[in-house]
Amino acid sequence: MSTPKTSEGASAPQDIEKYGIPEPEPFISFQALKDRIRHHYEVASDYYYTLWGEHIHHGYWITPNDTKEKAQVQLIELLLQRSEFKAGSKVLDVGCGIGGTSRFLAKNYGCAVTGVTISGRQVELAKKLTLEASKEEQAPANGIMKLGDGSVQFIELDAEKMGEYFIADEKAGKFDCVWISEAMSHFPNKPLFFENAAKLLNPGGKLMVADWFKDAGLSAAEFKADISPIEDGMLLPPLCTQSDYVEMAEKAGFKIFAEPLDISKEVAKTWDLSWKLIQSPALWAFAVSQGRDGLAFFQSFRAMRRGYANGSFRYAVMVFQK
Fold first, then answer.
1. DSSP class of residue 320?
2. Listing from the earlier edge strand, what are the strands of the sheet with 313-321?
3. Is residue 7 part of a domain?
4. How far is CA 2 from CA 13, 271, 287, in A?
5. End-to-end alpha-carbon separation of the chain, Å?
6. Range of the domain at 61
7. Would you put residue 243 in left (φ > 0), alpha (ψ -120 to 50) or beta?
8. Which of 123, 92, 120, 117 has the alpha carbon at shortest distance from 106?
9. CB under 8 Å to 197, separation ≥6 — which residues?
10. Are strands 90-94 and 112-117 parallel, antiparallel or unpaired?
């Protein structure tokens, strides 16, 4: 089997199964999974930035000619449209990555945004990129950086602890919007997240969700072929269906503001581009250096493409209101 050539002319492996990735390790605990997730983002966030830019999430292709960067912004704008988002809102961006959405909302909508992530390295990158965008020489002592008519701050925080953290901080107050894009699928205790989001929102506040799902009614063979390698490589607890999220939200006291919208076809191109982007010997060397988790992560790129093509892996946006 031939291997693709990079722009430098070096060969990159096409089938990472040749590395003999072991079977998934036996499940130990959700805490152990969170520790692996934290480590992954500590070591990989710089590579994410190199591959995808400041927005570490899917793109939403309205036309085939949309650039990756335009498609990523269009996904943000889709959630804004479906939630009837109001400029000047106070926003909690959960799983904020390196702060791309937080900066977008502050700069373009005058929002006061608090971004939280489990990764200290992501907080460092988010602050650095925000300072560059704001043209400030250093962050204020309180950590709140002005950007356009809005502001941004970033906090290293396990999302499962966000309820107690912000409730204990009287100055933080409550939020008009909780935004979570492609992060909840990592959370072991999703009902707790919905409960905390409800506690932290003002009356009438919105919970805006974009996430990965498994299709309902998969056979055991479909699950094993498509979903299992995604859960393994992306460090996910068992994936939910879209109806699972609706049920958990309603149990936490939310009502549906915008029904789940499946946009799998419009976002699937993300992983076609991602597979092309990782055909670099340097990135493969990084994956090998991270051992089994690094190789399984790259293998999951192929599973993502296959899952979208087969309809077993889904992507949807939805909005709930307190």
1. E
2. 145-147, 150-156, 112-117, 90-94, 175-181, 201-214, 313-321, 255-262
3. no
4. 9, 21, 21
5. 55
6. 25-321
7. alpha
8. 92
9. 94, 178, 180, 207, 252
10. parallel
Long-range contacts, 58-65 (Cβ 8 Å, 24+): 58/182, 58/210, 58/267, 58/270, 58/315, 59/267, 59/269, 59/270, 59/273, 60/263, 60/266, 60/267, 61/266, 61/267, 61/269, 62/266
β-bridge pairing 145-147 and 112-117: unpaired
And the tokens for 127? 């602050």
**Buried-state track 202-230, b at ≥16 Cβ within 10 A, e below 16:** eeebbbbbbbbbbbeebeeebeebbbbbb
| 99, amino acid identity | G
Rounded CA-CA distance 76/115 in Å is 15
In a domain, 16, yes or no: no
What type of residue sits at position 133? Answer: A
pTM for this model (two decimals) = 0.84
Would residue 200 count as lying in a domain?
Answer: yes
CATH number for 61: 3.40.50.150
Cα–Cα distance, 84 to 6 (Å, whole number): 44
Looking at the DSSP bridge assignments, the partners of residue 191 are: none
Task: Decide if 145 contacts 134 (C-beta within 8 A).
Answer: yes
Total of domains in the chain = 1
Q: What is the pLDDT along the chain (322 residues), one digit of tens a residue?
A: 333 333 333 333 444 444 444 455 544 556 666 676 666 667 666 677 777 778 888 999 999 999 999 999 999 999 999 999 999 999 999 999 999 999 999 999 999 999 999 999 999 999 999 999 987 767 787 889 999 999 999 999 999 999 999 988 766 789 999 999 999 999 999 999 999 999 999 999 999 999 999 999 999 999 999 999 999 888 899 999 999 999 999 999 999 999 999 999 999 998 887 766 666 666 656 665 666 666 667 777 888 999 999 999 999 999 999 9
Asked if residue 14 belongs to a domain, the reply is no
